[in-house]
Amino acid sequence: MIEIDRITKTYGDSTAVDGVTMTAETGTITVIVGTSGSGKTTLLRMINRLEEPSSGEVRINGESTRATKPHLLRRRIGYAIQGHGLFPHHTVGRNIGAVPQLMGWKKDRIRARVDELLSLFSMEPDAFRDRYPAELSGGQQQRVGVARALASRPDLLLMDEPFGALDPIIRARAQDDLRRIQRRLGSTILLVTHDMEEAIRLGDRVAVMDGGRLVQHATPAEIIAQPATPLVADMVGDVERPLRLLSLIPLSELLEEGTAPGEAMPAEASLRDALAACLWSGRSAVPVTVDGVPSGRVTFEAIRARAELHA
Ligand SMILES: Nc1ncnc2c1ncn2[C@@H]1O[C@H](COP(=O)(O)OP(=O)(O)OP(=O)(O)O)[C@@H](O)[C@H]1O
């Protein structure tokens, strides 16, 4: 469990983080979201003591971070940043194995860990282990950056805009991967983003920062249903944009051949209605009629892909 206890950071007269208190349970993802300058990065960097708090403290599993030397603390806490920060002259394998090596793991154990992580991120170990970062695509570099941060099974993984540089479609895949791997490994993650949609998609809990303060800390469903401040409401409003756009597009646009179970919908109905029908009834597609005649189907996957184009 991570306990952030009345933590504050001031620079001269200005307060970057103002008395933030919150708890993150082990094995969960907490997403810290807020506009530029709201103090997210400063809050994150106080957890691994890249910044020292002006007051307050952080406890990891009951132990104050002040009790551990910063460089030792940082070996226990993974850190992944936008633009991945890979060592350009080291292979993918050496990059991922960097922290285990510092911790004195045996070669075989490091190798096994590197291969396990590459496989988890859908990168064939034999094909990628010995490549250099420059020989990878942006998305692959980003995955290696996250794999490196996870390599030593840290108590905690801090991620600062880890997907900020990725285009929206790859980004959605990267988020899905992270979620799957986090569940599999049981990692505890604190992730910073300015993107409320990412927060809602990834977070077990979402922490919204505004002007250095924590203005809401709740589940994604609570944030959507009961935004605590007008700013949170605005941020949530942006998320609905893809949904609003789906409500303007008729089923006829994504009509494909095939059948689907359940009640049919007319081709003039909106993608939003079909999405709701799929989610509500647990179907992966709905049958569609044109002028009352069964004429094919629209799949959940196709709607989702379309929504992502507008994200
Ligand atoms: N080293 C520093 N010296 C002085 N002021 C700083 C320093 N670091 C951050 N600040 C100020 O603290 C405030 C919070 O910055 P921080 O980087 O934590 O915000 P953020 O929410 O992460 O923003 P962004 O999304 O733009 O990265 C800002 O007003 C920033 O200018």
Textual characterization of the structure:
By secondary structure, the protein is of the alpha/beta class. The chain folds into 2 domains: 229 residues, Rossmann fold (3-Layer(aba) Sandwich), CATH 3.40.50.300; 66 residues, Roll (CBS-domain). The strands form 3 sheets. A 6-stranded mixed β-sheet has the order 6-7-8-3-9-10, with helices on both faces. It binds adenosine-5'-triphosphate. The site of adenosine-5'-triphosphate has 11 residues, from helix 1. InterPro entries: AAA+_ATPase, ABC_transporter-like_ATP-bd, ABC_transporter-like_CS, P-loop_NTPase. GO terms for molecular function: ATP binding; ATP hydrolysis activity. Pfam families: ABC_tran.
Can you lay out the helices and strands and say which pair or pack?
Blueprint lengths: L1 E10 L2 E11 L4 E6 L5 H8 L7 E6 L2 E2 L5 H7 E5 L10 H5 L1 H5 L4 H14 L4 H4 L9 H13 L5 E5 L7 H18 L3 E5 L2 H7 L2 E6 L2 E6 L1 H6 L4 H10 L1 H6 L18 E2 L4 H11 L3 E6 L2 E7 H10 L2
Bound molecules: adenosine-5'-triphosphate (ATP).
